[in-house]
Specification:
It is a single chain. With 321 residues, this protein is mostly helical. Helices cover 65% and strands 2% of the residues. The protein is built from 14 helices and 3 strands. A 3-stranded antiparallel beta sheet has the order 1-3-2. A hairpin with a 5-residue loop joins strand 2 and strand 3. It is elongated and about 105 Å long.
């Protein structure tokens, strides 16, 4: 509350009551956030009764980390709006943006903390290798190298929707609050997918050559369902066996090949899958990345695939005998 005869105050008085410096008040005024009511005969700034509340609002918004342009938009909406929702729309958007940015910063800090602990806790002879692995990963870590790996693996011209659905299953997201073991696993996963392939080209499963883009989309949609069914069996510690999961698995390949699911087809499929290129190390590292500290190892598509292969091999072997 100003006590001057005209209800106005000087820049010094406003700064003192608002708990800021004169330089800060001048800064906000010069940028149009804190309008002056008038100037004195000597050219000094004079502020009206509403200035103190406005200054406190500006200070609160700035303390929340909102940049000056965002503060200006909030104040402009407040000046234009009604009493009940002054500045609410822009403020909500600005706060949401700050929360997203803060979340990213916290994720980066947690990753850095776990990475530092990884270096601190490892034997001296392993530190150079750990630092090399860490140096190849951004902070916070990006999954872009993993996505590129799978895009090179999948058949060309596979429908975008099918590719996106597969990538969602195959590409693990780095934990928000990782432990050193998870950081190490993710850096090793990054190194695995960025290492040059023998011969310069990434080996492809035989079915990719025969199925084409459309057939591959059908294949991976069917495999996703089969892996979910097999994953349920794995979580119950059940041994590989014939059943719905295996039938779904074989049906996915039969659809891709435009073939019938017969005992002969299953025998030929078992032989083909036994010699297809494998990426077991990828799925082992994925399991380490996504498994929470002290938790039970998570089921990956790779583990489900292996379970189904064992089930298929056992079934075809028994049929041949």
């Amino acid at each position: 509350m100003f006590t001057t005869y005209d209800g106005l105050c000087s820049i010094g008085e406003l700064a003192e009551q608002g708990g800021v410096t004169v330089k800060t008040v001048r800064f906000y005024s010069d940028r149009g956030l804190l309008p002056e009511a008038s100037r004195s005969a000597g050219g000094h700034r004079r502020y009206g009764p509403d200035a103190l509340d406005r200054l406190r609002l500006i200070r609160s918004l700035r303390n929340l980390g909102l940049p000056v342009p965002e503060v200006r938009r909030i104040l402009d909406e407040e000046d234009e709006g009604g009493e009940e929702d002054k500045g609410s729309g822009v403020l909500e958007g600005a706060v949401a943006g700050q929360l997203r940015e803060l979340g990213s910063q916290l994720k980066s800090l947690r990753w850095r903390e776990a990475a530092l602990r990884l270096v601190q806790e490892c034997p001296p002879g392993e530190r150079a290798d750990r630092l090399r692995l860490l140096g190849a990963v951004t902070t916070p870590p990006s999954t872009d190298p993993l996505v590129r790996f799978w895009r090179a693996w999948l058949p060309p011209r596979m429908p975008a929707r099918s590719t996106a659905a597969f990538l969602e299953v195959a590409v693990p997201q780095p934990p928000d609050d990782p432990n050193p073991a998870q950081v190490l696993a993710f850096t090793r996963l990054n190194a695995f997918v960025t290492s040059p392939c023998t011969g310069g080209e990434q080996p492809q499963p035989e079915v990719h050559k025969a199925a084409g883009a459309r057939g591959a989309a059908v294949l991976y949609a069917g495999l996703t369902e089969a892996y979910e069914l097999a994953g349920a069996q794995l979580r119950q510690n059940r041994r590989p066996c014939p059943g719905e999961a295996l039938d779904s698995f074989v049906a996915a390949y039969a659809s891709a090949y435009a073939a019938r699911d017969t005992p002969d087809f299953r025998r030929l499929l078992a032989g083909q899958l036994a010699v297809d290129p494998r990426i077991d190390r990828y799925w082992e590292l994925v399991a380490e990345v996504i498994t929470p500290p002290g938790g039970r190892p998570e089921t990956t598509p790779g583990a489900a695939h292996d379970w189904l292969l064992v089930a298929l091999d056992a079934q075809t072997t028994a049929a041949a005998g």
